[in-house]
Amino acid sequence: MSNKKVSLISKGPYVILDNGLVKLTILKPQGYLSGIAYGGLDNVLDPKSNESSRGYWDVNWSLPGGQDRYQLLRGVEYSVVRTSNDEIEVSFKNEYDPSTKGDDFPLSVDIRYILKTGVSGFHCYAIYERPSGCRAFDLAQTRMAFKLRPEKFHYMAISDEKQRVMPMPQDLLPDRGKQLIVPESVLLMHPINPDLKGQVDDKYQYSVDNKDGGVHGWISSGPVIGFWIIFPSHEFRNGGPTKQNLTAHTGPACLAMLHGTHYIGQDILAHFGEGETWRKVFGPFFVYLNSTSDVSNAHNLWVDAKNQRLLEEMAWPYDFVSSPYYLNAKERGSVSGRLLVQDRYVSDSLIPAKNAYVGLSAATTEGSWQTESKGYQFWVQTDSSGNFTIKNVIPGVYGLHGWVPGFIGDYVAKARVTISAGSHSELSNLTYVPLRDGPTIWDIGFPDRTATGSYVPDVNPTYVNKLFVNSPEKYRQYGLWDRYSDVHPEFDQTFTIGINDPKKDWFFAHVDRRDANDKYVPSTWTIKFNLKSVTSGTYKLRLAIASATRSDLKVFVNHTDEAHQVFQVTNLGADNTVCRHGIHGLYRLYSVDVSSALLVRGDNSIFLTQARGGDELCGILYDYLRLEGPVASETI
């Protein structure tokens, strides 16, 4: 490890930060990261790219009701925030003047970089602020992106299981690849690396839930260098622990996604009203670099990056960040408690909420944390007894949320939780009472907010990505929506309670069926079940939906006519989970009343109709279905 002091040199249009391990070259006053020298490589970023597109911050935004706008974020004022022998922090700031006319992005942005002595990497963060008097706008996405040297970085790693040699950027061009129905999906026809021929590449195949991510990156060849983005915390990312984000993709690109709409859609847009003030610190995240002189030890760079992630998490919140808007440990608070579940049809006693997710969010209604995008969120998992402690919380008033694998719905505490600097709050036992009207007649699946308990088919060999063959994430393969029609070419799916197995017989996505004329037509799934008796009253059908995209869902009991229709919802969802190779999106829960008059003693059927035709990429992913009987004892 180098003990060289950190130096700062201002040279022409550049500011150069150097600690003997890593040297950063930053364009001023814009703040574009032009160069990263490390491990004998003069620049790990692509020197053939424009200096504004090597390491940069960008944003997607719109005026209310307007078209999406994309732009790079750039500073107009450069300053040294802090300098010492051990650390340098620099700022590239662009302050928005609300009195300015025109279509400028109505937000002040302050981009920061920190380089410390003896550290094999650097920290990045940005302060976004709306001063008083700003016009209304919607924030869709913001991130920092890095474009690495394509002739050097070929191997991508985003988890222990998801690592592979990636295509070259030229492979996605028309002379080497064939664009498929989904624009981001390319069939590699004549790739530079012949081993990749016949595979599909799509950046969405490498998406990861916030709760499952934390480190991803690339490994180069000659010299062998690892480039990693590490999130020490997810508190500043929107959408909570189940929000899915892009990580790395062919380019080679490495992304720090901070705020986005993927797998949810416009429901998660951050809407800012006229004159609304706001401030948020995105980051810091850590860009870590490591290397080895032995090619056979290249995989150890991934192991080392995972260990570095743990070190960054333990150091959070950092004590070296200069902005007063970033709060250190002493300026934060904590809260602890225990979550229990009450479901008398499962147990007469309270059930510990084992491995539940519990979090604090500015959202205050059930499940609304999924689309909360302005504030910070703080989440943990409970232990086997339902105990939890949420540490390092920024002071404020929060809704306390939770969801428990094995139980439907969302928990939100009735009382708000107030966090103060330096304080710790002990909550009394919290009890979640999931929706339940009566005993279970039958159920399908396991309630975990995904469709992983359903049948996911093998990929059409024409569209394979070998990374996901024999993988628990086989749903990442391209074109699985069309496999429904291969499995059910003439007649739609029928599932018989007590005979069929969801993992073998319940297709993971309720999509249109392709008919003999290659047209996509509405599909109706049938659930068959037998009732030995019918109890007078109202039955409840619980529909827990893991994701929906442009779907028209109708539910019928025993006959598919208007008199037997018990539920309808149109144009449901904009998650795009089907075409983006996911297994969940925005969780929704519906409760459907079923009159006992519609049921008969003996054989019954419930029909689920995907009524929207002509859309091969629409679809509903069911998490869990349950039919509950009435409590009354009178039988028909």
The CATH topology assignment of the largest domain is Beta-galactosidase, Chain A, domain 5
Structural class: mainly beta
Q: Main sheet?
A: 9 strands, antiparallel
What is the highest CATH level, the class of the largest domain? Answer: Mainly Beta
How many domains in all?
A: 3
Order of adjacent strands in the largest pleated sheet = 7-8-9-10-24-19-18-12-13
Question: Mean of residue pLDDT?
Answer: 96
Q: Quickly give the CATH architecture of the largest domain.
A: Distorted Sandwich
Uncertain regions spanning at least 5 consecutive residues: none
Q: What do you see in this structure?
A:
The chain contains three helices and 44 strands. With 636 residues, the chain is mainly β. The chain has three domains: 7-315, Beta-galactosidase, Chain A, domain 5 (Distorted Sandwich); 329-432, Sandwich (Immunoglobulin-like); 440-628, Jelly Rolls (Sandwich). The strands form nine sheets. Strands 7-8-9-10-24-19-18-12-13 form a nine-stranded antiparallel beta sheet, with helices on one face. Strands 35, 36, 39, 40, 41, 42, 43 and 44 form an eight-stranded mixed beta sheet that branches. The longest helix has 18 residues, at 298-315. It starts with 6 loop residues before the first strand and ends in an 8-residue tail after the last strand. The mean pLDDT is 96.
